[in-house]
Task: inverse folding
């Protein structure tokens, strides 16, 4: 009865709101696409700009680092001076930085342009999501709108390499940046007409020391985990993570002392907000880690080419895309709590099937498990995103959106680094018993450290299947299976914990609408 009464007074969106959603989703797609659009362009960039190894690394990474570092600042800034205004400023800056990147004549110029793109991009994700909440007052329509927004975000990662490959076939590598400009120009023209403005009139001024502390917290931690995933444990990475966490303590202390903090820590005292954030982070943590293993498994264990691996992965990518469009149906029919809990159970079942398939090195099993994970993961992520923003006070929706996006950045980096490290540990334990006699010390180190090293060593020796290579593949598969089993158990425990928190917080189908 309560639900019917609440729905009655929730105004339905009109054509203007739905067109506005298309504009916001397109902007979000471009922001997401720029995280991956350079993958295929790197050889052309290397040939043209001749970057050093370090410069090449920063060309790849600086965009994601800047996005992660500035999300909270830009989300809170939107709450203070206006979300539409911040989005428009960011769109203009994104277009200018794209032109600068496209016509860069040195590696240093491209790094600076990519850094500026990241800062501008950090305005887009929190602003677009919080404006979606402003546009759609009806709970069912808002769930659908968030699904469309999430679909655009997911499609950006899939479309980026594909579109980049098509453009590189016919044009200069700078074309992958120039495609951003007409989209941002269209956003600048249409946003003032279609999108409402919203800001917290009593939000106070932005605290610049807090901005500096937030950057000094996020950037070293993201840097440490990303490089730990790529290079393994090293003192400089642990030092960066520890340094970032230490600054994080100072950041939290400062927020407690401010009248107008950069992040209102009271948000974390909202049970549904904190529980949804935890579920969101854990979901991204395990999916990023598991899919990293899956891609390596297809190529290194089963021996598929990169193209074959990509083609075999298309069905699971389609499941993710279709579920992004349809997730709102589950949320509207089951309510947010049951959608999250059921999604976690399906995700755990998928991780269990993946563990079994990885252990027995089954291609069909791994791909089927991947599709099952998609069925559970997408509704969980989109529903918890809606709860994170919906359970926060309206004046903090931009900050809440930014916290959600930052949490996803941390979750992905942590998942790849920590699960990758666990898999590597299992692999090395397995290889301790391998007979590597006849190999040089350098070859023994390569074979016993990673499966990629073992495969490359076997190729260099002209041997297709030495005994130690089969053991190496089994060790990798065992590590993969171990990580999936850990994911399954953790997701089940998380479902139990989330249920208790949601029940105690009295979250039901009207939860977000009541805020």
Result:
């Amino acid at each position: 009865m309560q639900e019917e009464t609440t729905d009655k007074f929730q105004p339905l969106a009109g054509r203007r709101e739905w067109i506005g959603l298309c504009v916001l989703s397109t902007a979000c797609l471009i922001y997401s696409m720029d995280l991956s659009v350079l993958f295929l362009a790197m050889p052309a960039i290397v040939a043209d700009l001749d970057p050093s190894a370090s410069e090449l690394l920063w060309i790849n990474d600086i965009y994601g680092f800047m996005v992660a570092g500035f999300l909270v600042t830009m989300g809170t800034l939107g709450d203070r001076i206006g979300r539409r205004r911040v989005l428009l400023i960011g769109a203009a800056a994104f277009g200018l930085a794209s032109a600068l990147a496209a016509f860069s004549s040195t590696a240093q110029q491209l790094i600076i342009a990519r850094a500026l793109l990241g800062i501008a991009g950090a305005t887009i994700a929190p602003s677009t999501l919080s404006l979606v909440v402003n546009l759609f007052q009806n709970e069912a329509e808002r769930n659908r709108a968030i699904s469309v927004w999430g679909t655009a975000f997911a499609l950006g990662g899939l479309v980026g390499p594909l579109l980049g490959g098509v453009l590189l076939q016919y044009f200069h590598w700078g074309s992958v940046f120039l495609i951003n400009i007409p989209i941002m120009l269209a956003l600048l023209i249409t946003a003032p007409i279609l999108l409402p403005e919203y800001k917290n009139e009593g939000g106070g001024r932005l605290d610049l020391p807090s901005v500096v502390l937030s950057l000094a917290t996020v950037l070293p931690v993201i840097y440490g985990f990303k490089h730990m995933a790529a290079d393994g444990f090293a003192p400089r990475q642990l030092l960066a993570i520890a340094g970032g966490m230490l600054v994080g303590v100072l950041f939290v202390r400062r927020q407690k002392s401010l009248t107008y903090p950069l992040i209102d820590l009271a948000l974390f005292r909202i049970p549904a907000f904190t529980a949804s954030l935890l579920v969101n982070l854990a979901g991204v943590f395990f999916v990023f880690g598991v899919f990293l293993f899956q891609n390596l498994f297809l190529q290194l264990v089963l021996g598929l080419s990169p193209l074959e691996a990509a083609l075999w992965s298309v069905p699971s990518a389609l499941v993710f895309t279709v579920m992004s469009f349809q997730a709102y149906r589950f949320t509207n029919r089951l309510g947010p709590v049951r959608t999250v809990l059921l999604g976690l159970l399906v995700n755990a079942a998928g991780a269990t099937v993946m563990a079994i398939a990885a252990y027995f090195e089954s291609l069909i099993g791994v791909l089927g498990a991947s599709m099952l994970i998609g069925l559970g993961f997408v509704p969980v992520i989109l529903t918890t995103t809606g709860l994170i923003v919906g359970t926060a006070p309206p004046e903090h929706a931009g900050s809440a959106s930014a916290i959600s996006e930052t949490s996803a950045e941390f979750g992905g980096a942590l998942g790849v680094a920590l699960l990758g490290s666990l898999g590597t540990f299992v692999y090395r334990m397995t290889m301790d018993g391998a007979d590597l006699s006849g190999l040089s010390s350098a070859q023994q180190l390569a074979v016993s450290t990673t499966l990629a090293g073992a495969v490359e060593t076997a190729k260099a020796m002209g041997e297709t299947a030495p005994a130690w290579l089969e053991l190496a593949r089994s060790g990798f598969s065992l590590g993969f299976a171990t990580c999936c089993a850990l994911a399954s158990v953790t997701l089940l425990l998380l479902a139990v914990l989330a249920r208790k928190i949601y029940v105690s917080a009295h979250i039901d189908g009207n939860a977000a609408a009541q805020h």
